[in-house]
């Protein structure tokens, strides 16, 4: 059955649910979008359900977070829908990052890039292949610049004097082509991992 893209109303519901738990360390929708983009563009796709503790933060262990099994199921269905929307954009469409404006109306992109970095950290060693590639490593530059701009350790911040609005606009515009480039870089590696998995498991489970 072809995937039905999430509607604007679905995204409002997803955003509202995530916002309820922000005080418990839950990701907002912008962070989630970056996080999923890293998982889908990277060396090995990790399913959304496996990442619930990372997405929800302390709300994952809070029994009052979802009043019923059904509300949790609805939330996971929205997560899967968003995951699928990103997968389809990367596999033949045009991926555009979900970037929200702050209270001052400025789009900064830090949340998105911090979410992407969190996704990279799950498979740190495998991402090393990209860092070590002279041709492809520059794809990470815009994401790392904004992902580390607010780092608590000033030495980790790429721009000592902050990022000008002109440079920020360039970095934000580079996110989409970078994610497509990263997805292409890891495409062969993902295929190889899938083949090895199938060879080691003679009775592969059907993936839904």
TrEMBL record:
<dbReference type="Pfam" id="PF03695">
    <property type="entry name" value="UPF0149"/>
</dbReference>
<protein>
    <submittedName>
        <fullName>YecA family protein</fullName>
    </submittedName>
</protein>
<dbReference type="InterPro" id="IPR011978">
    <property type="entry name" value="YgfB-like"/>
</dbReference>
<dbReference type="InterPro" id="IPR036255">
    <property type="entry name" value="YgfB-like_sf"/>
</dbReference>
